[in-house]
Amino acid sequence: MASQSFIQLNISQKGGIFHKRSADIVRKALKSAMSEAIIFLEKEVKVRTPVGFHGNRGAGLKQSIFSKVTPKGRKIVKGIVSHGFEYGAVIEFGRRPGKKMPPKGTLIDWIVFKFAGFDEEEAEDIEWAVRRNIGKFGFKGAYMFTNAYEENEDRIFSIFDNAGFKISKQYGEKTSFVT
Description:
Largest sheet: 2 strands, antiparallel
Strand content: 5-15%
Number of strands: 6
Helix content: 40-55%
Distance between the termini: 13 Å
Strand order of the largest sheet: 1-6
Number of helices: 7
Mean pLDDT: 80
Low-confidence stretches: 9-13
Order of helices and strands: EHHEEHEHHEHHE
């Protein structure tokens, strides 16, 4: 007879699950799991975020990325990783060729940073050409949010799986590992 490994969860009609506190136990465990998952994803997004003219400090896109967990009603916990950067979505998804040019004045600081030795006046002189190129040819997105989630989906699910075990333990049920 071949040996099998599996996890067995037993729930009986006694224990914490049948008490008034069960909703609180579930909500607390899910909020904790969501916090862990969201904080992890925030770090992963930041690793994949391109560094702009502010470098690793200042008011650039990377520094504007944040996470938060909020209870949404009594039954749902919501986790979010977002940014406070005006053009964050453009950096995430890129820009298709043939779209209109970026607004005037938005690329001056970036040009000064990217083309070392240019001062602000010289950057203003070439900004139109850079804006036109972006409008005409577009650019690829960094997909830092998309890739952070997709590359770590198993880890995220694992965090929530562990929350299920914590909930079961709090209910006073036994989880047994059978090999």
